[in-house]
Automatic annotation (TrEMBL):
PANTHER family: DENN DOMAIN-CONTAINING PROTEIN 2, DENN DOMAIN-CONTAINING PROTEIN 2A
The UDENN domain, residue ranges: 1-248
Keywords, comma-separated and alphabetical: Guanine-nucleotide releasing factor
Database matches in Pfam families: dDENN, DENN
Naturally occurring in which organism (per UniProt): Characodon lateralis
Range of residues in the leader sequence: none
Keyword NAD: no
Domain of life: Eukaryota
Protein name: DENN domain-containing protein 2A
Length: 288
């Protein structure tokens, strides 16, 4: 008997987050993650094609609900190496055998990550200071406990990649909920009489950018948002919700609604729930 099962959420299909953790330390992974949030140029290098493709695919999946809007080539042929000289953002996977050629190219502000030796071959030296420190610490704490949390959820073995992937994905989703989960409060529709109405209205919606940013009490989070809001990832995210908000029902939207329902009207600007022990309150995808 052959039994074929699809994941409860298709976002996790063909995604192996443990491949990332086996190649990169948690600290290094978060530095790469933070660089991608600012849409920087990142090159991954490894000896094996499978390692490159799996890690590139996994790191892009970490960005959910945001979608990488730029060049994405999990395995770049050496004949096309000149692509990494482009001034636009990219995620590229490169075999280690091409490193000699890479070093001869005029690279500027490029992050080169060696998956084989768990280190940066090139970096900008500010990667540790990109993410708000408290949010980063909370996220790091949960990821360090991912195996323990997976076992609590019912994983059959320590190598149950399905449960581990769910834990990792949910941790990053919660990170983004705490960062931008208040966005529905600042998407409003304009009525014909010129007054704002509920965002449930079929009228075109607009995003109140500055009010959204200033609603965060933390100065460090506001500073990060100021830069993150200028990325194409964030722009596309808001544009989709301005035009199709009622049709969006993914995991992130579910978690955002839970987040907004869990706080009263006077607390919606607070961003401290994530900091009070994210792992203890984390809600995982239920089996369908």
């Amino acid at each position: 008997v052959m039994e074929l099962c699809r994941p409860s959420d298709s976002r996790l299909e063909h995604v192996d987050f443990e491949c990332l953790f086996s190649c990169l330390s948690l600290r290094l992974l978060l530095r790469v993650f933070s660089s991608l949030l600012l849409e920087r140029r990142v090159i991954f290098t490894a000896n094996k094609l499978s390692t490159l493709s799996e890690c590139c695919h996994a790191v892009v999946a970490l960005l959910y609900p945001f979608i990488w809007q730029h060049t994405y080539i999990p395995v770049l042929p050496s004949a096309m190496l000149d692509i990494v000289c482009t001034p636009t953002p990219f995620i590229v996977g490169l075999l280690s055998s091409s490193l000699t050629q890479l070093n001869e190219l005029p690279l500027e502000e490029v992050l080169v990550v060696d998956l084989g030796s768990n280190r940066f071959l090139r970096q900008l030296d500010d990667e540790d200071s990109i993410l708000p420190s408290k949010l980063q610490s909370a996220l790091e704490n949960v990821l360090e406990r991912r195996r323990e949390l997976a076992n609590d959820r019912g994983a059959d073995s320590i190598s149950d990649t399905g449960h581990l992937s769910t834990i990792v994905s949910e941790a990053f989703v919660r990170f983004f909920v705490e960062l931008v989960g208040h966005y529905p409060l600042f998407i409003t529709a304009e009525r014909e009489d010129g007054y704002s109405s509920s965002s449930s209205s079929p009228a075109p919606c607009s995003f109140q950018r500055e009010r959204f940013r200033k609603a965060i009490p933390s100065k460090t989070v506001r500073r990060f948002l100021e830069v993150f809001m200028e990325t194409q990832m964030f722009g596309w995210f808001i544009q989709e919700r301005e035009h199709h908000r009622q049709a969006l029902r993914g995991l992130f939207e579910v978690r955002v609604q839970e987040y907004l329902d869990s706080i009263n009207e006077n607390e919606h600007r607070r961003v401290n729930r994530f900091l009070r022990g994210l792992g203890n309150r984390m809600k995982f995808l239920s089996k369908k």
